[in-house]
Design goal:
The chain is mainly beta. The protein has 1 helix and 6 strands; from the N terminus they run ββββββα. Strands 1-2-3-6-5-4 form a 6-stranded antiparallel β-barrel. This is PilZ domain-containing protein.
Length: 124
């Protein structure tokens, strides 16, 4: 069963600290949207209130689901600024960017000697 989401989830890898009233746990956000995150490496019971700490910047959330080593956290307010939002925007831009540009050097144009004699020099 597919759940229709209002926001696109973006694959990321962001180390964070999840804090509750009783505990602080290290985890990693593996997918993120403006409305929530999936965190691996730690777990809390469903409906737990928590906060995500990224370099001193706090985002509040509620655990919506929980498994043995991962959980889904929903934010009460959509991300619109701060370091976590910036990470999301960078990951979204990287996903949409084309593969790294690799120039094609035509045959007979010195392509075989690249790296040997320096830029623009004939060898031989």
């Amino acid at each position: 069963m597919q759940i229709q989401r209002s926001r696109e989830r973006i694959a990321v890898e962001i180390p964070i600290v999840v804090t509750t009233v009783l505990d602080s746990l290290d985890g990693v956000i593996v997918d993120l949207s403006e409305g929530g995150a999936q965190v691996v490496g730690c777990t809390l019971p469903a409906r737990s209130q928590c906060q995500i700490d990224l370099d001193g910047y706090i985002v509040f959330g509620t655990v919506r689901w929980s498994e043995e080593d991962r959980m889904g956290i929903r934010f009460p307010y959509e991300l619109s600024d701060g370091p976590l939002y910036e990470q999301l925007e960078m990951a979204r831009a990287a996903k949409r960017a084309p593969a790294a540009f690799q120039p094609r050097i035509p045959a007979g144009f010195g392509g075989a000697s690249i790296g040997g004699g320096g830029f623009g020099r004939r060898t031989g």
